[in-house]
Amino acid sequence: MWVDYGIAASIGFAGLLGLMQLTGELTALSMSAYQLTMAGFLLDELAAVSSWEGVSLASAAQLCGSSEWGTQALHCGMIEVWLEALPQGGLSAAADGLVSLTWEQNGWQRDGHHPL
Questions:
Q1: In which residue ranges of the chain is pLDDT below 50?
Q2: In 3D, which of 88, 97, 87, 83 has the Cα closest to residue 43?
Q3: C-alpha angle 59/31/81, rounded to 5°?
Q4: Does the model's pTM come out above 0.85?
């Protein structure tokens, strides 16, 4: 009888560990989906600001990214809010017209590029 109880308890414990693992993975997946959605919104908003203001996408990324003085030449809409939703998020513009959005996700560096 004690052997049966021990086997049942160990199976139940293994099941609970598996459930905890699954819960952690679902939470990580949910966070990843949220961050990717925010990154997509941010790049779409940046493209809209670029079109609305009549400046290049690279210029809009430089003007709407983190400013060391806290002032910006453009009205950047929700770009700042969505950038704050991404851990260590940052916009950068390359000379070839590509805009790079980077952030850290669960210890991994993510990159999103948007062509001009």
A1: 69, 71, 113-116
A2: 83
A3: 35
A4: no
